[in-house]
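Chapter review: from sequence to fold.
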Amino acid sequence: MAYVTLRFGALQAISRLAAAVLCAGLLSACSTNGPDSQTGSLNAEPKAGQDRQMVKVALLVPLSAQGQPGVIGKSLKQAAELALFERDNPNLQLIVKDDKGTPEGAKAAAEDALKSGATLILGPVFAKSVIAVTPAARKAGVPVIAFSNDRQVAGNGVYLLSFQPTPEVERIVTHATSNGKRRFAALISQDAFGKLVEPTFHNAVSRSGGTVVAFENYPPGSANAMLEPLRKISAAIAAADAEGAPIDAIFVPGGQEQLEPLGRLLPQAKIDPQSVKLIGTGGMDYPNAGRDAGLVGAWYPGPDPR
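The token string follows.
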């Protein structure tokens, strides 16, 4: 992972990364044992003398989901098709299933894929969907390599191929403190993701020698719910400035759904991102994020674009 300023879209990075990992997943399906049961590593090609039978790999992605999930689903599908084309192996068959971005859709897609003879499932993207497909996959003895970043859904035949929130938070806090940012504010959603990153953020700031000066939560689902917590953070920034101990950075974890309204609300809350650095998680890397003046210059952890 590398630190990059928010200025480019995620689709190219997603496609390049997905093409590489999906190709690795296709290769793992050729092995007799699949992912290693202890380490989760992927075995390579069949050994000499083993029969090369048709291998069916199912890809479960949210093709018809609205918004960013649908964009991610289509990007993963294109990356998988590219990996299959570059592999050019007639013994590999890709079965693409639309999981609709819901647990119910994922369960139906997995069951359909298994009936079609899938010997490996790539996906789904979301944790609840991974939970939904797990029972049928385990019963069939088919490994699942999911794209969720929730470590709690992994194990017993379910493997994760994703960036995890905990190291992302630790990396961005370490980067911020190493660049002179020592006094933090935070605005975190009261959802499953927020409950995961909140203690990680506090611990990372403490270990880095920093201080959390202001902390606010907001309920998910409503953009306007951010405004009052942002105003409280703005008041804390003003008070810290008056005391001669300014707040250096605001931690705003999340993705497009949270950050687009945040960018619009910053002026209303009288928060100047040119004076206080915005920092976040890898969810900041979404298409056209750099067009939002409020987010330009923000820091987040992500894969090296090269």
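Two observations follow directly from the output. The chain is about 40% helix and 15% strand. Residues 36 and 212 are 41 Å apart (CA to CA).
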